[in-house]
């Protein structure tokens, strides 16, 4: 898993607004500003969402460090894709943090099923099966809400001049033991994360179409391929499969723009094999 910042250079012309183009004064013929097609705009939006990243600051709980650990390395910083998951970052975190802090014996004895993260300020356990972008927005949103309710705190979050502040890293504490499994719901294994991802795809399919036929009809190779696109952060590999289940990029008609009507007796919750049965009811649905 390469967790470096992913950059994609978007042509300036694709981002121009209609009124931002002005022909030369001596131009004798009318000029029509070229506009990106509906499909191109959708593709651009998908690319921008895909390339979104969040800053993370990770440090090991000092109370859980065994004797012989190197306490000079306090924090590890990483710019991670918003669409990725904590289990996919564990190999990189082990290589650049735990293997350097712990001695060789303790590092080899460390098991991934014993590891878990909590948000530093609130102590809230970070769920393995939530995308990183969702975790970040959830924590930042809760913090903004608390600041809004507290006038003293909200004063520190406002500004009147100068550029907007940069994104603040999400500070996570890495624990090496005593994982609160009843709150995490799933373990840190990649297979469990994949099962949750596929369950979320199925539930998102149900929200869009009223059934899960598009996801359940995928071949095993396609199911593996769409997950590999997320795991490897490969936009083309992901959308090669996702294009089969997500809405098309053609401009919507007036008829198709209307939401489909479902009677209360026709709604059936899709099965999510290997996923917590309350996942859909809590609104933890991945809709891309």
UniProtKB/TrEMBL annotation:
One of its GO terms (cellular component) is mitochondria-associated endoplasmic reticulum membrane contact site. It holds the Pfam family ATG5_UblA. Keywords: Autophagy, Hydrolase, Isopeptide bond, Ubl conjugation. Residues 265-276 have a biased composition (Polar residues). It is a peripheral membrane protein. GO terms for molecular function: Atg8-family ligase activity; metalloendopeptidase activity. GO terms for biological process: autophagy of mitochondrion; cellular response to nitrogen starvation; piecemeal microautophagy of the nucleus. It is found in: Preautophagosomal structure membrane. Residues 250-276 are annotated as: Disordered. Belongs to the ATG5 family. This is Autophagy-related protein 5.
